[in-house]
Specification:
By secondary structure, the chain is an alpha/beta fold. It contains 16 helices and 14 strands. The strands form three sheets. Strands 3-2-1-4-5-6 form a six-stranded parallel β-sheet, sandwiched between helices. Helix 9 packs parallel to helix 12.
Length: 430
């Protein structure tokens, strides 16, 4: 079987390279010629640890190739993965225009029986829509099947997650389709769950919504921990050791971001609204997350007063370490708020960069964490990059206008920072 992956973004490129790694011949298709040019040169258009090395390896083995020729790619491959974006529309619903276009392209150009596997995150019922869109675009009656196969990749850990998944979910009502896709994954040592397409689609949203809930839950408790003089890090560890709860996603901070949690929770709320169901808990999860950065900024104001004219250093832009993704990143919301309050902002991130619309004379991008904090009235850690643990904080303290350190990720040791001479505040941890 030859595999075609349509869409060479984060999910598509990872999917294509992992199938090449386990021995399949893979073609990556994208309508963006610049992306294809970079991939053919062994370069990624996004940052993900380990993935570029794998790309170079399989360009060498010839198990992967990239093209913009959709007609030839569809005709030449029996297994077709849909891995295109489903961005949020203004009402929170998922925009399916790219999925629809791919389905119509497949229907128009298919010349033999195809197994179409959707990995894009889509609302419940989309497998049925893909089937209809593909069939309506056919010029001849050629058999095909559509399967839902959601991805569960963490940015920064995508390669490990794809090679060593917790589970594989296959959504199909066809025993034949289940066997065909099962063969693709037969080398994976994990549970393979075969269910209905609607259940598979819903499971993806449910997983991300639950993880977002864990984050907002611990962030709510962190606010109370501050008032009670309780260390929320120890609380999280204590409850996380209960195997009914688990330690993951219980790190208090300034909120979640990225391309998945905000988008997927919004889409789930939209689905609920259109089915006359109110998901009150998830509404609160979103509210907590959208306002969590304000809680940290209030701590800053209480320490240094009015922010107008003050220099504030932000360490980290990406929503999490090991990625350059700034979509819905709390640091971006914080920068916007600081600008509105007429503060001078000094920013550093080892990978991520500011979008052009945020660059003006009030914002400076530092070449190192140390330079970024020079002359600052306050420094805020927004991303838990490990390199921040290696900073010479004694030197930094002496270079700042005032040694005020606000740890939005509870990364540093509070007692150590205070011993150095910093005024230190974390989230539910000081």
């Amino acid at each position: 079987m030859n595999i075609l992956v349509i869409g060479t973004g984060y999910v598509g490129t990872t999917t294509a390279l992992v199938f090449a790694e386990i021995g399949w011949n893979v073609t990556g298709l994208d309508v963006n010629p610049q992306k294809i040019k970079l991939l053919r040169q062994g370069k990624l258009h996004f940052y993900e640890p380990g993935l570029e090395d794998l790309l170079k390896k399989h360009l060498g083995t010839k198990r992967i190739r990239f093209t913009t020729d959709k007609k030839k790619a569809i005709k030449d491959n029996d297994i077709i993965f849909i891995c295109v974006g489903t961005p949020s529309l203004p009402d929170g619903s998922a925009d399916l225009r790219y999925v629809k276009q791919v389905a119509e392209d497949i229907g128009k150009h298919m010349n033999s029986d195809k197994l179409i596997i959707n990995k894009s995150t889509v609302p419940v019922g989309t497998q049925e829509l893909i089937t209809a869109w593909t069939r309506d675009a056919q010029t001849a009656l050629i058999p095909f099947e559509v399967v839902s196969n959601p991805e569960f990749l963490r940015e920064g850990k995508a390669l490990m997650d794809a090679l060593q998944p917790d589970r594989i979910i296959i959504g199909t009502n066809s025993e034949n389709a289940a066997k065909r896709i099962g063969k693709l994954y037969e080398s994976m040592q994990c549970p393979i769950i075969v269910t209905t397409p609607r259940t598979a689609e819903f499971t993806k949203y449910a997983a991300n919504a639950f993880l977002a809930t864990k984050i907002s839950f611990i962030n709510e408790l962190a606010k109370l921990s501050d008032r009670l003089g309780v260390n929320v890090k120890e609380v999280a560890y204590g409850i996380g050791l209960d195997n009914r709860i688990g330690i993951s996603f219980l790190q208090a901070g300034i909120g979640y971001g990225g391309s998945c949690f905000p988008k997927d929770v919004a889409a789930l709320l939209n689905m609920a609204k259109h089915n006359d169901v109110e998901l009150k808990l998830l509404k609160r999860v979103v509210h907590v997350n959208q306002t969590q950065h304000l809680y940290m900024l209030q701590k800053v104001r209480e320490r240094i007063g009015n922010l107008a004219g003050k220099k504030v250093a932000l360490l980290g832009l990406a929503f999490k370490p090991d990625t350059d993704d700034i979509r819905e990143a709390p640091a971006i919301r914080m920068i916007q708020k600081l600008r509105n309050e007429m503060a001078y902002v000094q920013v550093y991130d080892p990978i991520a960069t500011l979008p052009p619309e945020l660059m003006d004379e009030s914002i400076k991008f530092g070449s190192s964490p140390e330079e970024t904090m020079e002359g600052a009235d306050a420094a805020i850690i927004c991303t838990e990059w490990p390199m921040f643990l290696e900073i010479d904080w004694v030197q930094v303290k002496d270079s700042m206008n005032a040694p005020n350190l606000f740890d939005g990720r509870n990364l540093l040791d509070a007692d150590q920072m205070k011993c150095i001479g910093f005024y230190y505040q974390g989230i539910g941890y000081d």
